[in-house]
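User: Quick sanity check before I run a bigger batch. Here is a single chain. Can you write out its predicted 3D structure?
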Amino acid sequence: MKNIYIPRDISWLSFNERVFQEATDKGVPLIERIKFLGIFSSNLDEFFRVRVATLKRLMEVKKNAKEVMGENPGKLLKQIHKTVLEQQKKVDEVYTALVKELESQKIFIIDEKKLNQDQARFVEKYFHEKVLPTLAPIMIDAIPKFPFLSDKAIYFAIKLSKKGESAKGIKYALIQIPTHLLPRFIVLPKKLRSENRYIILLDDIIRFCLKEVFSVLNVDGASAYTIKLTRDAELDIDQDFSKSIVEKIQASVKQRKTGDPVRLVYDRQIPPDLLQFITKKIKAKKSLTLIPGGRYHNFRDFMKFPNVGHSDLLYHHAAPLPHPDLQNAKSIFSIIRKKDVMLSYPYQSFNYIIDMLREASIDPKVVSIKMTLYRVAENSNICATLINALKNGKSVSVVVELQARFDEESNLYWANQLREEGAEVIYGIAGLKVHSKLLLITRNEDGDFKDYVHIGTGNFNENTASMYCDHSLLTSDERITEEVGKVFHFYHNNFHIGAYKHLLVSPFTMREKLLKYIGREMKSAKAGKEAYITLKLNSLVDGEVVEKLYKASQAGVKIKLIIRGSCSVVPGIKGLSENIEAISIVDKYLEHARIIVFCNGGDEKIYITSADWMYRNFDLRNEIAVPIYDEKIRNDLKAILAMQLNDNTKARILDAQQNNMYKFALPGAKKSRAQNDIYNYFKSRLANT
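Assistant: Done. Predicted structure follows.
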């Protein structure tokens, strides 16, 4: 039987469909459903900027494109285009339905045609005071060169006319809708003794006063249609060795902003002559994806939809719980010296990591702090605490990954801030992204140097830690700390790889050892022994690993997968994958943690890791998987996996058809929602301490 492999990009579209499902789920609070439309749109924007752009680049290679990626890029692009058009139609329908549901809650999104007299006066005043000064209309039919359209921005393509004039008298104009300067949603003043709330989009405020913008032209008709261009966002790194990596990244980020167009989304009501004029002027290639849409674009702005109305229209996010071992600790080091500690976000507070760094910054016994930074918060408390450590005379060494996509400029900023304060800053490794989440703090304890380590599944980012489900291991176990030290030595000296008995380190040992562990399960199954693998990952698309999992299934290994995003494995096919079950969970928090469990003949191997099972993570990145030795933490991780596998509220079944069917509770069975259950699990643990 020929093995079935779902292409990564097709599987990703199926994942984004699961995000879209949240916007249609009546069990999700209404305003949260609107925000999920925004998340869906933001995801799709990035997909076109990166994945579709890459496929179109490969199309230009032609000769060996299929060999490079294992799929025909032209065929994939056709599938993508078909799926995206279907999704766009559903988005328009769901948005219309959500607007009606808002009305039932006395929240009205109105356009320029529905304003009453008082609202019209407010809108006119707002337009003249706030909006008009930001507008810069361009008469695109009267200039030789078409203006540059920025990625992520939305524009009005405008058709102007005078009564009785021929087609020659028609003029075209362009206005950028200034969402980068003003809010997309404006809440209109509330009337006395009325519960109704009215919201108008910035787009429609401009439409209401559009003739005023062009009053000098004495036009009779002015109609505006939203367009949005998406550009190739992949960086082309200059190979000029005379330039520093910082100079190369700075130049590449600037180049990204002028990348080739890959998608044009437009209001389907736009006149054909205006659309044709625009596509001709932007010199669109045949490969440009044209997507007809509704009146509004950039739905990602709906992630910031105003919180009007009752509180039950939004999710209730419970406050992070204190960790039972750390809540009353005067010194985090004193706890980690005695036992391993695992923090699980957002159920527990990320502030413990900041507290640990703050303690290190003033602790006279701390000699050095070493850390990897991939994505940090805009106003990073982590970086601020590192700077404080430098001011207190500590040695600080930071590995900053400058090629963290869309965070390059922020990372450059913090790298410069740290370097100026005296930190040793290592700008990643040539040809190898540093994606590991490591912190190594060394203390001089009575003449002996003692190391304390953090290894996590998520970034050192206090903002995302409140929304992403991740785990951090804090340990002073010398089996782990010694090997983390070797990893940092590798960052300083790329020729010194080091030997690793406990950590799985890519690109050196991770792929080889994981394949070995899968093979060990196969041997156990063939010998009639218990054999199983449980994987929780964001993506599972590496071809070699997928093949190995199919072989393991055929050997009788029981495999359970919890994959949030792309999954190339097709479970449940007789003779190939009947021993594989797979689900995906999309809920109010983003599932981001990676957990690996092997039966290992009854002596389970359990890891948490920064790595998804993708070619890039195994071979093109530095990633770490750390074994969990503490029995209590092992039990916590297994309990978390069990709760997720039992989810019958937000879990979807992954199968060949990619229908994203919900895993419903059996008749009489208890309703289980993993994210709520996990919070309650930690809450009960806290109550029992």
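The radius of gyration is 27 Å.

User: Great, the batch can go ahead then.
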